[in-house]
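This part of the workshop introduces the protein records we will be handling. A record pairs a protein's sequence with a compact description of its fold. Backbone structure tokens are a discrete shorthand for how the chain folds in space. The question running through the whole workshop is how a given chain folds. The record below serves as our worked example for the rest of this section.
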Amino acid sequence: MNKPIEASPDRGLRRSREFKLEHLVEHYRLTAQSEGKSPATIALVTSAVHYLGEFLKDNGIPTDISEIEPEQLRSFTRHLQGRERFPSHPFTKPQGGHLSGHTINAYLRSIRAFFSWAMAEGFIDKSPFSLLKVPKAPTKVIPALTEEQLVSLISAIDPASPQGPRDYAVVLLLADSGLRVSELTGLRVEDVDLERRLLKSGGKVPRSGWCHSAPGFSELYYAILTSTAPSQTAPTLVSSS
């Protein structure tokens, strides 16, 4: 028996001509699900729009999307910049400090995507984000291992153990190439070009593509292959375990 088709929230919305955020967000959810967007993306957008709606209501501002101006979004941005982390989370107590620049950037980009969707759907003629710049997320610099830390890490490997040569090769390869662990465990035999000392990384753009390895990589590669069993049947060069 076929599952009954749910009534579309779009029908009532377009009749009312009053496009409030709390109603539109459900229509967005249905559209995003039908387009195959990931649950994480949908959750982030709907949560961000919910926070915006709460802010507007608390300040006596209408939540009709056609009445939201850039100035109100700037005020919302300042509100986020001064907001505590986890202020009303059901399981996590509020923590010291404010929302990170990355979190604020993610919320605003999600709301911008929501307004772009609303404009494409004909609910608004113009997005207020056309006159608004989203604050950039701060650049996150991950500190590299010091020479002492790297020596200590390598010294902890027992070269006489069955996995010793492989572990030694893996640590040096990660340190030299800058690959993420997930990128290394995703490497396949055909992703290695020994002649040009290149590895094909499947990471996110702009990280995806070929990256150089250090001189002597052929020996490291051989150590990985001969120490990883069963190398003939494994789809990847290094297992994640």
Q: What stands out?
A: The chain has two domains: 9-131, 147-227. Confidence is low (pLDDT under 50) at residues 204-208, 229-235. The beta strands are 84-85, 95-98, 192-193, 198-201, 209-212.
